[in-house]
Amino acid sequence: MFGDLKIEIYDSEGELITTIPAPKVKGLNRADWPMRLPAPKLPPATNLVFAFQGPRVPEGTYTYKVIKGKETFEGEVDLVPDPSSPHSAEDRMLQQETALELYYMLGDLTYLVDSLIEIRDQADARVEALDGKGGLANRLEAYSKSVEDLRGSLVSTAETGWISGDEKLREKLGNLFGGVVNYDGRPTQSQLDRTRVLAGQLQPAQASFVSLTTGSELTQLNNQLEGKSLEPI
Q1: Burial class (CB in 10 A: 0-12, 13-18, 19+), 143
Q2: In whole angstroms, what is the distance from residue 202 CA to residue 114 CA?
Q3: Which residue from 31, 151, 195, 217 lies 20 to 30 Å from 168 (Cα-Cα)?
Q4: Span 121-137, mean pLDDT?
Q5: HEC-encoded secondary structure of 60-93
Q6: DSSP H helices in 60-132
Q7: Which region holds residue 44: left if phi is over 0, alpha if psi is between -120 and 50, else beta?
Q8: Quick one: what percent of the chain has pLDDT higher than 70?
């Protein structure tokens, strides 16, 4: 009755999908598994995105582990399609593939934006350490602005929040994902086309990030920072 008690779910490849906290009431207990991946990671922004649940896992055999301290109890569960579902296996597969593609694109975007925030904050901290004076401080401020401009092109930054209607790549991807993941049938052709378009917008953003973080400008800034006994960015 005491200590950690959890249930882990693994796919057919042995990859951990999710961990469910198990109830610990004396007697029989029921733990619900929504048969979905965790909700997608989203970068911080000022606008609301309707992406509150993860993609449904495909049908197949899954392993569960009930873990209590050093004890582990294993078993398997087979997920089968709902026989009353009007959607064909082909349509369900396309829905899952599209939802997963958008899911991982959101994960990539979150990593990108989180990294931009970290780099911007580091540059601003170096400006503060220099008291905002001198040519190096000015160059750092310009670099920080370039980083922030890239972030602002990817996520909503409008101060009025969700009522502003400001939609950047985060909002477009998130809302498209929400529309696909909340319907178990075939995505519309418009949704499929939109997925391709947004994937095409993420790639140049990733390229711009690489340019900002590996280019000569940052190398020169870091060399000058080290010359002033300051941590490089």
Answers
A1: buried
A2: 15
A3: 217
A4: 93
A5: EEEEEEEEECCEEEEEEEEECCCCCCCCCHHHHH
A6: 89-129
A7: beta
A8: 97
